[in-house]
Amino acid sequence: MKLSALALASALSVAAAADDGGLVRMKLHKRSDHEMVADHLKRENEALKSAMAAGNSAAVEMAKKAGQVALRGATASFEEQKAALEEGKSENVIIKDYSNAQYYGVVELGTPPQEFTVIFDTGSSNLWVPKVDCKNCGYWFINGGKKKYDEAKSTTFQKDGSDFHIQYGSGDVQGFFSVDTVTLADDLAVTGQKFAEVNDAGGLGMGYVMGKFDGILGLGFEGLALGGATTVFKNAIDQGVVSQPMFAFDLGNQKDGELTFGGYDDSKFTGEITWTPLSEPKYWQIDIEDIAAGSYSSGATNGIVDSGTSLITGPSATIMKIATSVGATPNLLGQYTIDCEKVATLPDLVFHINGKEWPVPGKDLVIQASGTCLFALMGMDIPTGPQWILGDVFMRQYYTIFDYGNQRVGFATPNY
User: For residue 99, which of 310, 396, 408 has the smallest C-alpha distance?
Assistant: First the structure.
């Protein structure tokens, strides 16, 4: 039985409706490929200007590093992650790619509600939003600035005060924890939710400033949560806000889609669901028997299914081999571009999961606009974490169900 639902929505665009099945829906809007490519070119141009202004090869390398930080604002380098692990700080190093995010939704905090646009992220577990007077939290002339939480305006606010501190690859994101009511889809209220008020988001760099999101709502497990916070979804389960401990993404195919809490919507897919058990219930991590593209074959590996990452990522050396084999070339931002005329000849990227093949067609391995084609695979080395990240490029191909209660992920063929 499929029950209550929440769908991602773009900023300022919220619409909910109930039907006979008890589903509550809100529209999901996808950030356009044109906008993604334009922002990418803008970041690349800035990195190139920095290198040229410095006028030496060392500066070019610095620009490249800066570009990678801007692109993967929340991605620590191998050396930074290793050092953090040796210092016993592994819980504070977050592996994320937010500047490429394409999907945003709306949640409300407090009473009366204060509205925020967030990324619904299965690759992290905390909820955070900027607070009033937050530093490095956007500017009014860029996408209208960021919405900021004001605890003084909420009658359900409760003080916590413990530190919130995430070490990103480019620096820190700091704040403190508070407690308030979180509302999903207008009327699904989670009370007593511990969340972070961020007072300095400098660690996310320009990826955050330019992004169309205010904060993050993590949909991972408690093992990833900082500060001992119970996740929004776990609280929703415990409080009976949802009737089944699962949620599902329909990211659509260049069209509106939905994120469903409390069950899944069988009108969104055809055929049977293939369930795959988690290999580590901290991330939504699964075992992968093989990943193949052309003559490349990975052999047995693993990956996480991550709604907060737009691209597909894998080990840097592997992605370089695949990119080189199809004629893609690296740029200053640590990403690859490809001649748009070659898109039609790109091989499928095939994931072998639980005895079945789950291909991503070659034509869908690019983000194309204005004559520029971004290769949708990017290198990312995570020394103690998953080898691959199956982001939105993969999830757009399949209706994806996250079963918290049974610790498994389900894939089905969408009906579009």
Answer: 310
Query: 303-357 pLDDT, tens per residue?
Result: 999 998 889 999 999 999 999 999 999 887 778 999 999 999 999 999 999 999 9
SS in 3 state form for 115-183?
Answer: EEEEEEECCCCCEEEEEEEEECCCCCCCCCCCCCECHHHCCCCEEEEEEEEEEECCEEEEEEEEEEEEE
Catalytic member of 33, 39, 121, 214: 121
Pairing of strands 246-250, 399-403: antiparallel
382: tokens are 């995570």
Strand partners, 276: 409
Closest C-alpha among 70, 51, 47 to residue 59: 51
Count CA atoms within 13 Å of residue 327 on its CB side: 12
H/E stretch holding 13: none
Tell me whether residue 287 is one of the annotated catalytic residues.
Answer: no
Q: Is 348 tagged catalytic?
A: no
Surface-to-core class of residue 120, CB atoms within 10 Å of its CB (0-12 exposed, 13-18 middle, 19+ buried)? buried
Residue 87 DSSP SS3: coil
Of the listed 214, 306, 364, 381, which one is catalytic? 306
Neighbours of 158 (CB within 10 A): 13
The pTM for the full model equals 0.83
